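Hi there, hope your week has been kind to you so far. Do you reckon you could talk me through the fold, stretch by stretch? I've dropped the whole record in just underneath, so have a look:
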Amino acid sequence: YTRPLDAAASVATRCRSFHAKLNEGALEFMNNQLNSWVDGDSNIVIKFATSTIGVFEGKHAEPHLILTVFY
């Protein structure tokens, strides 16, 4: 990416999406991924996030929680 992260800015410069099936184990795994990602880079400051439920196509079409984090 060419735009540098600016932790002091009030607006986001990037986003990252996470998704998980709607069960306890999958949501716990997604939480661990999200926390590891944030802990792994001190330049990441989350500005806001959105979430929705949507169907992911694969072997089986299943509902997922989709979380988009803007940072």
